[in-house]
Amino acid sequence: MIWLKTVFPESIGIGAPLKVGIFDEIRTFEAADKPALIWLRRALYFHTSRANYLKNIVVGASRVDLKGATAGEVLESESKNGKERLNKIKEKQERIKKKSTLTKQQKGKAEAIKKEEPLSATTGRKTLTLKKKQTALES
Predict the structure, then answer these.
(1) Among 57, 79, 116, 124, which is most buried by a count of CB atoms within 10 Å?
(2) Is 122 part of any domain?
(3) Domain total for the chain?
(4) pLDDT above 70: residue 110
(5) Are 86 and 51 in contact (CB under 8 A)?
(6) For residues 25 and 7, what is the distance between their CA atoms, to the nearest angstrom?
(7) Closest CA to 53 of 9, 12, 108, 21
(8) What is the number of helices (H) and of strands (E) in the chain?
(9) Span 97-109, pLDDT tens digits
C-alpha cells in the first residue's frame, strides 16, 4: 500500500473512485522497486474496501486513473454495490461494538460475583459451601 501511495499519489489514498481495470495499468507499470503482483492486488483490494473509499462511490462521481486524470464515471450498479459493501462494514462494526459492550457487562458481573464469594485463608481460593436441603416442612 505504501508503494502504491508513493508512486501514484494523485490517485491512490485520496479516496476517489479508481478507474475500472486500474490493476492492469499497475501491472504494466515498470519500476525497479515494484512489489510482487499478489501484494499489489491485495493492497488495491484493501484500498477499495475501506469505508472512506466506498463512501465516494456515488452515481456520476468521476473515476481517476493512475495519473489523477478523470477516466469515466461511477455507474448506478457500481454505486449500489458500494453502498451494500459499506452497509456490511457498518453492520460488522455495530456487532463488534455490541459484543464488546456485552463482554464489559459480563466482566462486571463476574467481578461482582468474585467479590461476594468468600476466599479460603490458607489457599486463597473460593470456599465451597453446600446448600442446605429443604424439607417439605420448610417449604
Answers:
(1) 57
(2) no
(3) 1
(4) no
(5) yes
(6) 13
(7) 12
(8) 5, 2
(9) 888 776 766 766 6
Q: What is the mean pLDDT of residues 21-27?
A: 89
Instruction: Show the beta-strand stretches assigned E in 1-139.
Output: 62-64, 70-73
**Residue at 78: amino acid letter:** E
Q: Do the domain assignments include residue 130?
A: no
What percent of the chain is modeled with pLDDT above 70? 84
The answer to whether position 45 is within a domain reads: yes
Separation between Cα atoms, residue 58 and residue 73, nearest integer Å: 9
Contact 110, 96 (CB under 8 A): no
Name the CA radius of gyration of the chain, rounded. 28
Cell 457498518 locates to 90
Return the CATH number at 39: 1.10.1710.10
